[in-house]
Amino acid sequence: RRERQRFVDKNGRCNVQHGNLGGESSRYLSDLFTTLVDLKWRWNLLIFLLTYTVAWLVMASMWWGIAYLRGDLHQAHDDTYSPCVANVYNFPSAFLFFIETEATIGYGHRYITERCPEGIVLFLFQSLLGSIVDAFLIGCMFIKMSQPKKRAETLMFSRAAVVSQRDGKLCLMFRVGNLRNSHMVSAQIRCKLIKSRQTPEGEFLPLDQCELDVGFGTGADQLFLVSPLTICHEINSKSPFFCLSRRSLRSEQFEIVVILEGIVETTGMTCQARTSYTEDEVLWGHRFLPVMSLEDGFFRVDYSQFHATFEVPTPPYSVKE
Questions:
Q1: 207-226 pLDDT tens trace
Q2: Which residues form the Potassium channel inwardly rectifying transmembrane domain (predicted)?
């Protein structure tokens, strides 16, 4: 088998990197929330920890600064003196007061007195800032955890596609399956043919995308995915594979990108699963083994045969021939 660069990996990851953005990179900061959600988990956790650590140290330093400027640190043990924050003697005690206030623990040992207007203003600022930081970071983590990307991993595609006859017509077929009992609502499948071509005007298109018809007119692209299904693309005069034969398949270079979209029944979120098939993964003259069997009161799916194929008599000629 020939190894070459894929446009889309078998696991659905797109092999496209954006570079030399120049001034356009500022667009990432204008949509900071989406940028954080798109980051990898290790960077999310690092930003989460650093943001809270820096915010806590800065706010604790501000409380300590107020106590230092008012002289509370030197007279904190004087019972006749009214400090800004009671029982704040040094930076650790100021830090503990901030944590008690931010986490609404309120042990009762440290508190703001009524003779400290700057402390009241700082308390209001701390409450507003803490609410904003909590909403931003916790919301970001929640959205990242609830993303339906992991749901896509329980949607299976066959390792190879096959070309054989069905109902007297030559068809390109592959298989999809759902490993979970929960359904994919409004599941729809689409196929793109990625292939380089040159226009009659001499323009070279390195990754030209062409749609493969998998039943748009008949509604066959709308899937009821409760059991493995075989998706069929009829090779006819409108198909880009009209001139494809068994011999020409060996010299072709193309990639078929499959996109399965649907709504996760349990969460209501849209999920997308992707895979691709190169010309080396298209088996001419093969058919998929059956995986469904009827048992006592239910249908059983044998996923051990999900990727298995067997040879069938198939003309080696193209539809055009």
A1: 889 899 998 888 889 999 88
A2: 8-148
Cβ-contact 156, 274 below 8 angstroms: no
pLDDT, tens digit (0-9, with 9 covering 90-100), for 265-275 = 877 888 889 99
Cβ neighbourhood burial of 233 (10 Å; 0-12, 13-18, 19+): buried
Question: How does DSSP assign 239-252, residue by residue?
Answer: STTTT--HHHHTT-
Six-digit token string for 233:
């693309």
Q: What ranges in the chain are assigned the alpha helix state H?
A: 26-30, 32-38, 41-70, 91-102, 117-145, 149-152, 246-249
The pTM of this model reads 0.74
Burial (CB < 10 A; 0-12, 13-18, 19+), residue 114, is exposed
**Would you tell me the crossing angle of helices 91-102 and 117-145 to the nearest 10 degrees?**
60
According to DSSP H, which parts of 111-217 are helical?
A: 117-145, 149-152
